Structure formats: structure tokens, C-alpha cells
Amino acid sequence: MKRSRGVVLVLLGLILVMASVGASDEALETWLEVNQLGPYATETQDWDAIIAAAQAEGEVTIYSSSSRIYQAADTFFEEYGIWVNSYDMGSAKALDKAIREQEAGVYNCDVLFTTSAELTFRALPEGLVYNFVPDTVGPYIPDDRKYPLLLQRTSGGTCYYNTEQFPNGPEFADGTPVDNLWDLTRPEWRGSVLFKNPLASESTFNYMSTVVGHAEEMKAAYEKKYGELVLSPGVPDAGFEWLYRLMQNDPVLVGSSDDVVEGIGTPVAQGNTIPKISSFTSGSKIRYNQSKGYVLGVMTLEPAHVILNPTYLMIPAQAPHPNAAKLLIRWLMGSAEPIERGITEFEQPYWEGESARMLQGRTPWFTASSWAPMTGYPIAEGCLPLEPPTLYWYVDEAYIWEHQLQIQEAFIMYGG
Amino acid sequence: MIREERGPGIMLTQARFRLQRWLSRPEKLMGLVLLAVLAVLVIIPLVQIFIGASTFSYNDTRLVLDARPGAWTVYHWHRVVASRLSQALLWKPLLHSLLIALGTVCLALPLGSLLAWLVVRTDLPLKRLIGNIAIIPYVMPSWVMALAWYTVFKNTRIGGSPGFLQAMGVNVPNWLSYGYVPIVLAMTIHYFPYAFILVSGALASLDSQLEDTGRVLGASRKTVLRKITFPLMLPAIGSAFVLIFSKAVGTFGTPAILGLPVRYYTISTRVYAMLSNRVEGTAYAMVIFLVLISALTIYMNAKVLGVRKKFTTIGGKGTRILRTKLRRAKAPITVGVLVFIGACILFPLGMLLLQSLTLHGDFNVRELTLDYWIGAPGSIYASNAGILRDPYVLGGMWNTIKLATIAAAIASISGLFFGYAVVKARGSVMSRLIENLAFTPYIIPSIAFGGIFLSMFSKSWGPIPSLYGTFTLLVLVTVAKRLPYTSRTGISAMMQIDKSLEEAAYLRGASWVKRMRAIVIPLGKSGLMAGFILSLITSMRMLSLIVLLVTPKTRVLTSMTYRYVEQGFTQQANAIAVLIIILTLTGYFIASAMGKSKLEHIGGG
């Protein structure tokens, strides 16, 4: 009796497990259909219905690569009374946790807000995340910036120096300026180049990979300043050679871009006397010159001194609060009003009055080195126009997806 | 004919009789259940991770052209051991891990032994106090020391505002700021109390009559020390060596914090980096290496010192401890000991507290603020509130307390069951199997254990559901990692209960449940309570074990501190670290007030 009961229990358990596997496919299909996502996505949305449903859901959870999400979450709560569980996790961890939760069938996250080639090339095709383009801004965004994933912003990675240590821009002891990416690999900067650990940051990894991917330009830039480039043994091309020489120059790896800019931008009077420079780091940190009293300057380097990195918004499969997720995405994109009214610049301060009303959830990212995907959208004071992109490189996700593991290996092998 | 007809009947009766007898001795049934539990928590994860290291995963198809997900391969093993990557990925970090563990043991063990000798074998005053506070650095999380170190010894290498010493005008060299030396020193401060606990236990049970006999027979003090005391202590010192070594070799937090600026990697930090980039097969192969090292150390200890263990059983006439008189050295030694231990506790606590109160984290005492503690939302960068008003921190604190309480309750109660099953069936194969399997998590370093559970529960596997992202997973991994300690507590608690008590009840017809409720649990209660408090403390301060498994929803204070450290939010990180110290110390003081704390069972995490 006892044994047979046990067998029945085990069998029942197995059936339940198998049923739940089958059910999750069905659940996903239903979820997509009900929420008009994936194959059921529409060009326009019924926002009254979405807002009502979102308010009934009451909360929304976002995994974000940017700490500024907290500010946007506050304004979202003020506007709609919907509580945002914001988790600022950094680009790598936001991606890692969201993907693992999807694979485990755990649905906690409603909006994923991060950067990585893995999103376009794996998470989306495998149905782990879904694209959502709000019709409020959709018509103003070129196709390649809303498909396959909605771009929230393009942000620039730049190389910093300390303007008090180098009032005329960084230079070597003999007076020649630091104006070439290869200058970072010179012995004068040994132990003095700071950057974020690329194995712990998708954005930094993207910056590094972009330099590596521009082997031809890197070769030309070297030859322009230093003559013929001799590759080190086992290094395939000029791109990898730059990474190799950078890593061999005893760089200082830190955990966050805040650490990078603190290390470089702290005023000399506060004891920051030894010159340091950075490799590519989030360009928007220049805002700390106001908020924290830093003295950061941005280096002008050949062949490129700004690398443009995309940050996307998307809804993970079977998100528990899909309507609030849609509303939050709409909020983070900002309104299209400035384009419709032909406004070319916002009044300062951006987080108050009319500016804040139009910028909506975009306010925290309306800074230097940050560009909205909408054509004709204003840029913040101190932000250079994106076109024409001289000395700017775009992160090439297709290249990174293909070479990611190879570059990862090289980084480790070269001493990272 | 008749016999043939009756055959099955007799067999059935016999079977029923056997079943009845079997049910009256439920420790066997319990043993089976516990074996099943151990299979899920220990054996299957180990098998799973081996499979993970020996098959292709999805990600591998991007690097290896002919890889098919799920197919068997030696690719990861080759990559880890003998590729052009091996040097940077495995061998150097492995060497670092070994050197760190060795350095830590070589400092912590003499320090702890000396303290143990002073407390147990001399007439040092304030023994109780010293014995109690000496444990505190071990009760605090080990990475706290790393944070404090960073705060004080930070030099110009990473730029920014200088650390405490640099601000005072002292030039701190890199080797003292980051990398090997500070990692070892920080870990020594954490582990010397552990050595103290282990060695003082052995010293207390060492009969000084043996030494007296030697003295009477004319041996000099030195000879007695060399020929009697030391050989008798050797097994205890040897096992202390192994216990500390195998804990230190897999530590994650301290090397992660102090190693990165000079790119000083260990196996544990490499495993973490690989797993958080989902380069899994490679990471699992490295995890297996880490497990093998620990297993090898324990095996060598058993091999080299095992034979000598027999010495300890000598001297059955009751122990008498002769205390060496410190005479004139008494006062300076007492002061020295108190100052040293005090510094080990107050230095990190004070530094972290002080920095969490400074506006820019630069020790400018003219700009003190409570904003990082109780500031309103928006008073500090990124619009966070002070930690005591930040819903995320409070949520993390609630998770920490919930996790620690639930895990400690389950761990200590299941420890009692383990004890019962092992002690009742003493001498049987099953008893030995359970005891050994329950000890296995000890040799698996925490970061590896976390990695194993990550692989095991990331996807559903047969009847085992995927638990990633659930609170249950955190409880499960904590309970499993605590097994070596809780099962030991349970065993020693059960050993103290005389067999005859339960037998008497059995003869009076008491059912098993009744026997458990009326005899076993009440008598084992004090052991249970001690085990509970100690599991509670360790569960609150652990980082390595859960750092790979926490998700935003299941965040705990330690994972949040680590995140803040990574982000460069120094003051918040330090404030939360202080909060964790306060929590664990509260637990510890409750435990020592209850007086029954068996501190040798502390640990883990």
C-alpha cells in the first residue's frame, strides 16, 4: 500500500512537472497575445486601456544598467502612482540575471534596460525578451533604431584627463600632446591608465571591442604618429595589438565608471596629484564636474575619441506587469512634443517646469554624451551634435557578437 | 507440495515481520531519507557540474565551430589546463589561491595557537573576556577587513582622494595597498580566531601530567615541549591547518576587493568572472579544480598525520591542567593581547563607520554627515536615501534576517536528525556514509558551491525544478553548506543522550514520534539552540556562497554591499557593512549570553 502510494505520488509529480513545461509554452503564447507583443505587436497602442491596466498592476520591476533609473522611477511614481522596483545592477549583471531568470522560468523582471550584443543576437531570437515601440515616439525613430530593439539612447564613451593637472590638455614631458589612442600604451602612462573591468561591464567591453574591431584605422593612426607598426608575437592585427600593449602597460582596473572618474577627476587640492588618464568610460560622467566638483576633461584622440554605445529597452517574456512595463518604457523614452513643436533646446534646469514635462522619464539621461534615437530631438547643453560623426565610432554589435569570446580570451591572456 | 504451498506465505509473514521491525527503528528509514537529501544537495550537484565541464554549452558554439550543445567534449578541460589561455586562467590564479591560503595559515595558526596557549595554559587574567572577544573578528564578515584595509591603505595608484595613511603624508607602496600582502593580512585577522578555537579545544583536553612526568624524569622545558607537547598537539594543529587552508583557498570577497586594482586574480575571482559572463563549461572545470585541491589537502592531512592521532587517546586518568606562571610578563602580555584583539575589532569597525559619515569619503572630518545613514531621498547622489530609509536596503535587510532565520532553523533541526541517524546506526555502512557525505560541503569552497548550485538549479532537471531567482534556492544552498557543522553538532548532541532512555520508552510502548518529542528533542535542545544561533550568524555574513545566486528580489545585505563596492558607492557600502557587523555581533552576544555556544561549529560562508 505504502509503496504503491509512493509510486503514484512520484508519477503525479512527474506529470505535473511535464505539464508545467508544456504549459509554459502555452502561457507564453497567451501572454504575447493578450499583451500584443512579439507576433501580435501593433503599430499603435490604446494608452487609456494600458494606463488603466498598469495602475491595476500597481508596480513594475526594471533591471537597469544605469543608476539614474532611480530618478526616473520617482517621477514615474509621481505621474502615475505606480511603484517602480528599480534595480541598478550595471550592464553585465542586469543582462546576466535577466537571462538566467528567463532560462529558469522565473518571471520577476518587467523591463530590461541595458546594453549588449547578446540582446539582439540571442535574447531576442530565442524569445527571452520582446521589443515594444510606443506609438508616441515610434514614428520619429528611424527603423534601425527601433528594430529589432528599441534604442533608448546612444551614449558616448570618452577618455578622461584631469584639467588641473593638464590645463592645456594632456601632454608628455617633452611637450608633445596626448592625441592618439596609441599614446595610452606608452611607458609614460605605465600604471596610470584607469578603466572599468570589461569582464564586469558590457559597455566597457563594447568600447574595447570597438577599438579592436577597427584594426585598419588603428594601424593607420599608429603609422601616422609613430611609423611602422610591428605586431607582437601571436597578435593577429593592429586592433588586438593595441589591446595587448594597453594590458601590458599595467593598467588599473576598477569596478565602476564612478571609480574611474573619481580617480581622475578629483581636484588636485584634494590630494589627487599623480596624473592619471582613462581608457573609454561613460562620457556622461562629465556631469560630476557640476555635481561633485570634479575637474574632468575629455581627450581628443585619433583615430577616434568617442565610441557610441546603444542602450535598449525591452520587455522580458512573461513579465508579470506588462502594462506597467509598456507605460514605463513610454515614460523613459520621453514625449515627442519637442519634435512636434519644433523645439530645438530645453530650458535649464531640465528637471523642472516645461522641460521636465516634455522630457518625462528621459530627464536623467538628457546630458552630455547622450543622444535620443528620435530624429530632430534636442540635445543637452555641452553635448555635441551626433552628425557628422568625425572621430566617432559606433559599437558594431554584429562584429562584437562574432568576436566576443575571442576578445574576452585575448583580454584575459594579455593580462586582464 | 505442502512446503511449496506454504513457501510464499512464510516469506510474506517474514517480510511483514521485517517491515514491522524496520519501522520500529525509524533511524534506518530516516537514514534513507537523509541519503536522498544528500544525493540532491551534494552528489547530483557534483555530477551535474562535471557534466557541465565536459559538454558543450550554447555559448561554446560561438567559439568552436563544430560544437553541438550537449555533446561530450574535453574542450573545456583542455582550455583550462593546456591551452594558451591556461596560464592566465588557471595556473597563475591557482598559484595565487594556494599562496594566499598558505600565507594565511602560516600567520593565523601560530597567532591563534599562541593565544590559545596563553588562555588555556597560563595564569593570564581576564580569560573569559579574552576568550569571548577573540572570536569577534571571526564573527565579522571576512571582506569587512578588506574594505577597511582599502579605506586606510588606498594609495595613489587608483587616483582620487588619498586613503587615510596617504592623507597623513605616508607614501604607501602598491604591495601594501593591493594584492597579496593585504589579502593575506586581512584574512589572517579573520582566521586567527578560528585557529584559536580549534587549538584551545585540543589544549584544554591535553593532560599536563604527561608533561609533568617528562619534567620529573629530568627533561628540560624545551625537551618536554619538543618531545611531548608538540607531538601531542600535532594532530590538532594539523587539522586546524587543513580546516583553515581549505576555507582560505576559496575565499572570494577579500581577493575580489583588494586584488582587482593590480589585477591579482585567484581561482575564486576567475570563477566568478567566468560565471557572470556565462562562460560556464570553463568555469565548472575550474570549480572542479578548486574542489580537488581542498579534497587533496584533507586527504594528505589524514595520510600524514592520521597515524599520529592515536597519541591523543593516551592518558585516561582525568586531565589536570598545569598553568604556566607568566610572572612579571603577565601585565604587559595581558595588555598586549587586549590591545591586539581590540585593534582587530575596532580598527575595521571604526574606519568603516568614520568613512560612512564623511561627505566625500575622504576622511575630511569637517564635512561629516549622517546623510548616508538617515538622509532623505535625494540627499545623496543618484537620489538614493540614507541606508536606513532606503526601501532597497531595508528590503535587503529583511531578506537577510529572513534567510538567516529560516536557514538556521532548518539547518539546526536537520542537524539533529542527521545526528540521530548517524549515532543510532553507529558502525553501519549507512551511518558512515551519511557522516562523510554530510561533511563533503566543507571541502567545496563557497564560491564553487554557489557555482554548483547555479548550474544545478538554473534549469529544471528531471524531477528537480529550476529554483534560480527564488528564495528557496538561497535557503537550500545555505542549509547544504552548513551541513558539515550542523551534522556535527547533531551528532555530539545525540552522543550525549544515553541509549537506555529511549529504549525504556520503547519498551513502554512509546511510538517513535512520541520518543522524539518527549526524549530526543528536549535533551538535544541545548545543542540545537547553539547550532541555530551559530548558523544564524554565519548566514547573515556570508557573501561567497550566495553572490552568484542572488537576484534583485532575493538580494541580501552582503550582496548589496558588494554591489556598492563595485559601483564605487563607498559610504553606502561601508554603512551597510557596519549594519551587518551589528547584526552578527548581536547574534553572537545572544549566543554567548546563553553560554552554550560551541564555537568550534561556527564557520562556513
Describe the structure.
Chain A is an alpha/beta fold. Chain A folds into two domains: 28-155 and 309-365, 3-Layer(aba) Sandwich (D-Maltodextrin-Binding Protein, domain 2); 160-304 and 390-413, D-Maltodextrin-Binding Protein, domain 2 (3-Layer(aba) Sandwich), CATH 3.40.190. Chain A has helices at residues 2-35, 47-57, 69-80, 90-104, 117-123, 202-213, 215-226, 238-248, 257-265, 288-291, 322-333, 337-340, 353-359, 397-413; strands at 59-64, 83-88, 111-114, 129-130, 150-158, 160-162, 193-196, 252-254, 277-278, 281-282, 296-298, 306-316, 370-371, 392-394. The model of chain A is unreliable at 14-19 (pLDDT under 50). Chain B is mainly α. Chain B has a domain at 105-264 and 305-311 and 332-360: MetI-like (MetI-like fold, Orthogonal Bundle). Chain B has helices spanning 2-24, 26-54, 75-82, 86-121, 127-134, 136-139, 142-153, 164-167, 174-177, 180-204, 208-216, 221-248, 253-259, 267-276, 280-305, 330-357, 371-374, 391-424, 429-443, 446-457, 471-495, 499-507, 512-541, 557-567, 570-594. In chain B, α2 (26-54) packs across α20 (446-457) and α16 (330-357) crosses α25. Chain B starts with a helix and ends in an 11-residue tail after the last helix. Chains A and B meet through α1, α3, β2, α4 and β8 of A and α4 and α24 of B.
What is the chain-wise order of helices and strands of chain B? HHHHHHHHHHHHHHHHHHHHHHHHH
Low-pLDDT regions of chain A: 14-19
N-end to C-end Cα span of chain B: 67 Å
Number of strands of chain B: 0
Q: Give me the CATH architecture of the domain at 105-264 and 305-311 and 332-360 in chain B, please.
A: Orthogonal Bundle
Q: Give me the Rg of chain B, rounded.
A: 27 Å
CATH class of the largest domain in chain A: Alpha Beta
Gross morphology of chain A: globular
CATH superfamily of the domain at 105-264 and 305-311 and 332-360 in chain B: MetI-like
- The structural class of chain B is mainly alpha
Distance between the first and last residues' Cα of chain A: 62 Å
